[in-house]
Each structure stands twice: as C-alpha cells, then as structure tokens.
Amino acid sequence: MFRRVTTKVLLLLSVMYCITYIDRVNVSTAAAQFGPEFGLSHTQIGFVFSAFAYPYLIIQVFGGWLGDRFGPRRTLTVCAIAWAGATILTGFATGIVSMVFARLLLGLGEGATFPTATRAMSNWMVPERRGFAQGITHAASRIGNAVAPPLVTWLMLTTTWRGAFFIVGAGSMIWAFVWGWYFRDNPREHRRISTEEADALPAYSGNRAQTPVPWGPLLARMLPVTVVYFCYGWVLWMFLTWIPQYFQQSHHMQLGKSAVFSSGVFFAGVIGDWLGGVVTDRVLMRTGKLRLARNWMVAICMMLTFLSLLPILLVPNISVPLAAISLSAGFFFNEMTIGPMWAVPMDIAPKYSGTASGIMNMGSAGAAIVSPVIGGWIIDRTGNWSLPFVVLMVLMLIGTVLAFVMRPERQLETEAEAGKATEPRYS
User: Fold this and answer.
1) Domains contained in the chain, CATH given
2) What is the Cα–Cα distance from 39 to 91, expressed in whole angstroms?
3) Residue 256 pLDDT
4) What is the mean pLDDT of residues 60-86?
5) Is the pTM of this model over 0.85?
6) Alpha carbon 375 to chain centroid distance?
7) How far apart are CA 301 and CA 168, in angstroms?
8) Number of Cβ atoms within 10 Å of the Cβ of 181
C-alpha cells in the first residue's frame, strides 16, 4: 500500500493538514506570553484568535473555485508559500495591530487549502474511500492541534515565542516546494503511478476552465450543509482557541502541564477523525445508503457531543480528570462528523467539489470569527470558564436536527446535463 502513489499523495495532504493547524493554533499557546507582553485582555486575545477567520471565510468559495480552475498543484503551492510567510511574519509582531495583520494574512493563505485539497482527493480517491481520505487528513490536522501546545511551549522555552513562529513557518515553506515537485493534477500524468492503480481511479474531470459553475443550484444544495458545518465549527474553534487557557486559568495549571492536558483532548480528536472516516465508508459500502452513512452519522455524533459536555456545566468545581475526560469525549464525537461532512460536497457536486467544499467550509470559518470573541467576552464579563459551553451545546442540538436536511444522495444536475442525468448511485 505504501508503494502506491495515491497513498503518498494522501500522506502529503495529511502533512499539509497537520502543518496548517499548527500554524493556525500556535497563537493560542503563545498567547500566554505575548498577551501580557502586549497588555491584552481576554476579549482582545479572542480577537487576535478570530482575525485569521475573516479572510479565511471570504476566500473559501473563491479559493475552491481557484482549485477547480487552476488545479490543486499550483493553487496549494502558492497558498502554502503565503501562509508560511504569514507565520514567519507573526514572529515580528510588536503589538495587537501587527499581530492581527499577520493573522489576516495567514487566513488569506490558508483559505483555499481545504477546498482545493478536496478537489485533489476527488481525482485521486475512489468514491468508496473518500470518507476515509477526509477522515485521515483531518485526523492529521488534529495531530497538529495536539502537538502544537507542547511543541510551541518547548520552542518558546528554548527560544522565545517569536522563535516558535519562525521555526514552524520554515516547515511550511519546505512542504510547499515538496508538493509542487511531486504532485500532478491528473493522476495518470504522474510518472510513478502504475496502470492498475490508475485504472481504479475515477475519470479525470480536468480543471473546470471553460465550464461555468451552476451557482444558484449549487448554493441552494450546499446551504443546509454549511449551516450544519457552522455548528460543528463553533465547537472546533472554542476548543482550539480556549482549551489551553481553560486548563491554565480555570484549574490554575502551569503552562507546561496545561499543554499536556490540552494535547490529550486534541488527540481524542485525532482518533475521532480517523474513525469517523472509516465508519462512514463502511456504512456506505454495506448498506448503499448515503443518508445513513452521512446524515444519521452526523446527527448521532453531534448528540453525543452534547451529552459528553454536560459534566462541564452540571458538576460544580469539576475536577481536572473529569473535565479532561468530558472535553476529550466531546471533541472525539465532534470530530467523528468530519469524514461524512467533507464527503458530502463530493457526493453532491463531484465536478465542482472544490467550490462546493469551499461553500461548506464557510460555515466553520464563520464560526471561527465569532466563537473565540464571544467566548472571551463571556469569560471577561463573568470570570466563569464553563459558561461559553452553553452556546456550544445549544448549537449541537440545532446541528443534530438540521443534519437530516442535507441531501447527499441527490447529485447536482447542471443545466447542460438536465434531462439526461442518471439515477443516483446510492440512496
């Protein structure tokens, strides 16, 4: 398996997912030093966290279109150079203005990455393995979440918080050059791919240079998917931005110890991402029912996320072990939705999967803007680190209900194909 070119491409994408999340969440650990240095409140720190998401939100659909238009090879290479430069620039920040500017540039660079990676997977993965591919790549991103607190803490202690950004930015730059050298948009143009491996892949749809995107039908189909993903994203960004400081300040831990507990929570997400991708593909292959593999799985996992986080609200003076178990279980089940959710754009619009996944990811990007700021505002006003979880849990209930509105079993019909579309492969 590891000799296959498809496996190596998936590995490269997994490394990218890992690096992008280290680059976007390292600021939550570094805030323990740059926050006091710059004299920032929790609300201001929350704004620094969320600044990344403004261009990230805006660029989602356009970034997905770029991936469809110019191909994942060129698009991801340019994006990686941009976000690597932004990470290095963060190390030169002298206050909240320059810090926010660097975070805005980071969001601009990373905005097209996941939609474009989804476009790459649509050409490089067979349909029955798309859930696994999305699950394993997002599991790698959660590895980035998990290793970021101890890695950044270690780099901060051995160099400075600025040095931590310089070093991880250099790693991003290396990945950009490796991707541009190894990857090909059309799998059959890769000089090392075997005939047997190429024949198993779907027909290459090409870059959609001359085919207009059916914006109206596509937006209508992706709207409920985007809302559900907003609910997921609220949980994700509350965890990514505030969990390190939750352990440090709510339970009065030292920086190093809080980083260890934060990593434990994030590693639960790694397992959830991987398992979610495996389960959604297995359910699809055994039943042939997309709604069961996608809708039902997302709804069940969101409800389990809600139930897992109840102890944070209901147990007074919750102990550190119980809090860690509750948060880990909540993050685990929330991340199990990743495999089915990111497979849905490929189910609905395989020819425009980059654009479709960009539309969906706007939901998470929107949550990334408001979730950290509202969380910081609640903490500043009340001093209670458990109250931000109330909003999070309400959104889990909403997402559970709306998951059944998605229609992955109905493949999008463009106007040119209307009247001659075949029946959907799965129901």
Assistant:
1) 5-186+213-405 (1.20.1250.20)
2) 17
3) 66
4) 89
5) no
6) 20
7) 33
8) 9
Q: Mean per-residue pLDDT for 278-282?
A: 91
pLDDT in tens, 364-385: 888 988 888 888 888 888 877 7
CA atoms within 13 A on the CB side of 290: 20
| Residue located via tokens 């403004």 | 54
Query: Token pair for residue 308?
Result: 């897992």
Distance CA 281, CA 339 (A): 9
SS3 content of the chain, % helix, strand, coil (to 5): 80, 0, 20
Rounded CA-CA distance 113/21 in Å is 11
Model confidence at 2, pLDDT cuts 50, 70, 90, reads low
Per-residue model confidence (pLDDT) at position 9:
92
Give one DSSP letter per residue of 203-250, joined into a string.
PP----SSS---HHHHHHHHHHHHHHHHHHHHHHHHHHHHHHHIIIII
DSSP labels for 324-347?
A: HHHHHHHHHHHHTTHHHHHHHHHH
Three-state SS letters, 241-292? HHHHHHHHHHCCCCHHHHHHHHHHHHHHHHHHHHHHHHHHHHHHHHHCCHHH
> What are the structure tokens assigned to 372, written together?
């950290």
